[in-house]
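Predict structure. Input: Endoglucanase, 996 residues.
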Amino acid sequence: MKWSAFKKPVSLLMSAALSLTIVSGVFTVHSSQAFAASSTEETRFLQMYQQLKNPANGYFSPEGIPYHSIETLMSEAPDYGHMTTSEAYSYWLWLEVLYGHYTGDWSKLEAAWDNMEKYIIPVNEGDGKEEQPTMSYYNPNSPATYAAEYSQPDQYPSQLSGQYAAGRDPLDAELKATYGNNQTYLMHWLLDVDNWYGFGNLLNPSHTATYVNTFQRGEQESVWEAIPHPSQDNKTFGKAGEGFMTLFTKESNAPAEQWRYTNATDADARAIQAMYWAKELGYNNSVYLNKAKKMGDYLRYGMYDKYFQKIGSASNGTPTAGTGKDASHYLMAWYTAWGGGLGQTGNWAWRIGSSHAHQGYQNVVAAYALSNPSGGLVPNSPTAGQDWTTSLKRQLEFYTWLQSAEGAIAGGATNSWDGSYKAYPAGKSTFYGLAYDDAPVYHDPPSNNWFGMQAWPVERIAELYYILASNGDTSSENFQMAKQVVQKWIDWSMDYVFANQRPVTDSEGYYLDSLGNRVLGGNNPAIATVSAPGEFWVPSNLEWSGQPATWNGFSSHNGNPNLRVVTKNPGQDAGVLGSYIKALTFFAAGTKAETGSYTALGSQAEQLAKALLDAAWGYNDGIGITTVEPREDYYRYFTKEIYFPNGWTGLFGQGNTLPGSSAVPSDPAKGGNGVYASYTDVRPAIKNDPQWKYLENKYNTSWDPQTKKWTNGAPEFTYHRFWSQVDMATAYAEYDRLINSDQGGPVEPVAPKAPSKPNAVAGDAVVNLSWNSVSGATSYTVKRATTSGGPYTMLGTTAQAAYTDSNVVNGTTYYYVVSASNSVGESPDSPEASAKPASTPIPVQGNLKLEYRTNDTNPGDNQFRPQFRIVNTGDTAVSLSNVKIRYYYTIDGDKPQQFHCDYAAIGSSNVSGTFVKLPSAKPGADYYLEISFGAGAGSLAPGANSGEIQVRVNKTDWSNYNESDDYSYDATKTNFASWEKATLHLNGDLVWGLEP
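Output follows.
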């Protein structure tokens, strides 16, 4: 790497320190000399946070949903700026994690997750609306009916042929056992935030935001060729009697009304990645950490072939149905999808994975968090931890296999060549049976040409390198692969990234050396530059040639001399810049964590990161960091490209008929027999956009349809994409956290914030206290009073966010506050927490014993799910019809309730439940569930047990419970164990346990 690639400018200095005032949840920034100066990077992060959260700037909808962009006239992945994606939600979480790190206020993170669960995770989050209403009918032995993928949209709809029988889904049973149902806890990828399309939210009409989808027709279908359609299709829109389904698949009968959702695996993985960092930075609310675990549990469906075919079995063109984990490639595929029926014939459901894995979607940090106890987010399903352990190594191997000789990462691999399980081409390189694909999933434009698909995933590898090095793991094979990939990638990328200089290129976007020659790859090229103070430049596109060698393990990897890349088209993509800076930052911090000081390359990476951050700030227009974008592809707003089969006509949500009266015949060379419509034929409301007249005039005066060039310049737009702004904001925060703080840097120390969310738990002559960790705190002081509000006396200090007070008297209520301290000073006190210790009664123990467990990792959702086993420890048989179980809990809003027995070894029909309200509330209980058994349950012989009994309870309005303080609930009991806080009664007498 040449140091001459950039010159580090003098850092911009703040003329005055900044103080922050919170007004209605939004930051107001104003100068003050009284507040100790923060670092430049911390200040800029908080300024960008204010810009993003200021309602006047328009990043969020009235329902609090982040828009893809402030601006509306755009077409990229979403085809309208006020759509949103699961990607945007995942970035929102990351923003709030770092805000929590700086302020100690984690409520914003929890509010973001709540909004995500409400609007883009299609589950009943407690409002009584079932958004996966028929998932319980899913048959894991027959997940879906096969339909081939095709190269052109014109070849659709695809026949639901069942040519290849689907394999067996091995996850469904354990997910049901763990969570009580199989309703997928993942985000749907696309949301029409303001109902711009007009379809409306069928299953939750109170929400303006509507689940929609676009891409459904093969690798060549671009955003310009996609047809937006509702994800909940009761045939109100689309073709009469068919809805939109017959544009994509065909069957012998008219399609049934149905719902269907598609998940983008990278977004949910990023959400889990954000929660991992929240936990590392002091967040400890188990309710939301458990939600991240649950998301990771279901995210494993992204590891499976589309139709659960055995991995590698289709290399000769004849796939074999998988029987379980043999259908898992253990990578993050492009998507997973699931759906089912609506209406009276809706007693069916389906599920698919994806056969195609793109390198840009892998997330090694999420895999680490979900597999390693040190990661802290291992899901509760029995095989989830091992699956993610395998996935972590597999992803690192994948990157090693795909890394070019220069250092860039090539496309990916597939288990279904051409999307129809064709035989692999002769000589095709493979990875664990998957075939190499330089542009998996989509070809318009090729999916691995954009530099962002480099910066996103390698930033995560840089994070893992830093995590492992910080934990002292510098010898494992996983560490060696992470280090090799990120080090080689950083070395390559820094040759083509510039701060305060502009690279010299030719008219086709190729970088030039000092002699004017094109740079066509190779190691450490010397790019010609001109001075350009305040500018930044990163690559936009890559050209690929060759392929990697077939993978035979890390120890035999040869560095891929035959896989090459040419780097092109320097641009000013602020979103890519943010991810790239974080990759540099984590890599630099990782070299220091590994060796004790920055390596030469690590030092260069840190200095380039700083120079890029300083240059980028000059592009902040008061709303965000953005640059002017020439959009040469926007002529496609006016071309006829959207394919409709012959005779297909239907109603779009904006009131127009599809394909409209101005469609033109399709190109028979593309395999179809139909017509093409334009973007405006399908979405006429776009003509009402305030920027439409500008675009239309530019097209009429500058676009030459013969040369296909913009003769007077392409239309230019300035976009404030939410994810892009968060990427830049978090780049400032991560640099400050990892570089400034690690070095002692330019940060002037300040006293810590007050601890938040203190919790006091009483025991027998003891109170156990805990609270959220505070950034910058070196110790905590615990104070106590016997009167609420004090005065408080100091009990002691601790370096941990927990304390045990054993100097208490049973029967007395104690009130606690905690402050945080460091060398600068002490914080204000935390909010107050109280507890009343009490002696522990001796539970009754007769000749029956109750064993209990729970796999319910979300104590704040709308159901609770205890599981029991009754053991006969006596020497005579006991009739179960004479036995009752009582489980004590708080109802958290008195509403009618429903009992379900999901499974019982003695037969679910032999198990019933009733609800009894206590005459007066007890600690942790105002109700108990009484479980009884019918005559068909039989009797328990001496020494025998009843087998598993799985029950589930909900309120009829599906409002939430809060189990965390329930008397009979214990989240730690994930395996059957004796449990005295649920009781057994024989012929009306208490024979086991302890009543509250």
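Confidence is low (pLDDT under 50) at residues 1-37, 742-747.
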